[in-house]
Amino acid sequence: MRDFQKPGRSAVFASNGLAATSHPLAAQTAVSLLQAGGNAVDAAIGAALVLNICEPQMTGLGGDAFALIDVPGHDEIIALNGSGRAPRGLDAAALRAAGHKTIPLRDVAAVTLPGAVDAFCRLSEAHGHLPLAEVLAPAIRYAEEGVPVAPRAAFDWAVAARDGHLVNPAAQRTYLSTGAAPEIGTLFRAPGQAEVLRRIAAQGRSGFYEGEVAEDLIASLQEMGGTHTLEDLEATEASWGTPVAGNYKGTELVEHPPNGQGATAILMANILSHFDLPALDPFGAARVHLEAEAAKLAYDARNRFIAD
Questions:
Q1: 206: Cβ–Cβ under 8 A, 6 or more apart, which residues?
Q2: What are the tens digits of pLDDT across the range 175-218?
Q3: Which fold would CATH assign to domain 244-306?
């Protein structure tokens, strides 16, 4: 039983389904979609899109999406890779000539084509139960009506504002509308994002990768010196694949293949499987040291062989 004298959360049990997210409104959205007859795919997409509004410092429509799906009636788990690719015009030689040894993180060169929306649309069409418009409805409502800024979001927001990460004028209008990062409890609205979501709900992926939204997105990137084109954006396509798997003491571990970096966790588990962890004090120095060394080895292998 949990020690109620210390901060923490109790275990959650359910007979028909449950959802775990980093924000209550996203978890509530997922459960509501399940109650409306949706499945896990509908719930995951709906929750992810609500998180775009609740935690914009962590996730967004301009990002990536990875999914592992256990389809009822099928023996194999399938993977969907919705990670964005670099624009075709990006030149590694030019970046090196400019003195960069790695991709500059705060530069438009680091911005890949957004793959999440395509992944969500493909997932919904292939494996969802509810219409995409119904799945997007909660996120549209929260974007229009606003959500209270949570403590973690407020903290990250303030750091981003302090460190000058929100330099784009459009980003400042949306995320620093009062000239400063919003405080805890402030109502944050994103009417522009609500409009984009409405277009996706009505037109599917075309509402994002073609037309006015696409033109505005590419124009903004090109204004900052990006080589992104409308052709790059329209060609963005999530890909289906087969997961990589490992085994930890009788339990199968499934992760995305590269360019996903989930194999790092399997590497850690493989290393730790050679040790008797239960015999060690879970909070003792010996176990912490062992796990830290396993992590160092796995991350070193990731950096050398898996992806950037």
A1: none
A2: 998 989 999 999 999 999 999 999 999 999 999 999 999 999 99
A3: Serum Albumin; Chain A, Domain 1 (1.10.246)
**Of 22, 51, 17, residue with least CA distance to 33:** 17
Domain ranges of the chain: 24-146+189-241, 244-306
Residue 82: in which H helix or E strand, if any? strand 77-82
pLDDT at 166: 84
- The model's confidence at residue 7, banded by pLDDT at 50, 70 and 90, is confident
In 3D space, the residue among 31, 24, 64, 57 whose CA is nearest the CA of residue 188 turns out to be 57
- Nearest Cα residue to 34 out of 154, 113, 175, 128: 128
Joined together, the tokens standing for residue 13 give 């049990």
List the one residue out of 133, 114, 170, 111 whose CA is nearest residue 46. Answer: 133
| Arithmetic mean of pLDDT, 168-176 | 88
Overall average pLDDT of the 108-134 stretch: 97
12: left (phi over 0), alpha (psi -120 to 50) or beta: beta
What average pLDDT does the segment 10-28 reach? 91
Residues 292, 231: Cα–Cα separation, whole Å:
44
Q: Name every residue whose Cβ is closer than 8 Å to that of residue 31 and which is 6 or more positions away in sequence.
A: 17, 18, 19, 43
Share of the chain above pLDDT 70, in %: 99
Helix (H) or strand (E) run with residue 244 in it: strand 244-248
- One-character DSSP codes across 45-72: HHHHHHHHHH-TTT--TTS-EEEEEE-T
Q: How far apart are CA 62 and CA 115, in angstroms?
A: 7
- The answer to whether the pTM exceeds 0.90 is yes
Dig out the tokens for 105 from the structure.
Answer: 């993180």
Query: Can you give the pLDDT at residue 219?
Result: 96
CA distance 29 to 33: 6
- Average pLDDT of the segment spanning 256-275: 95
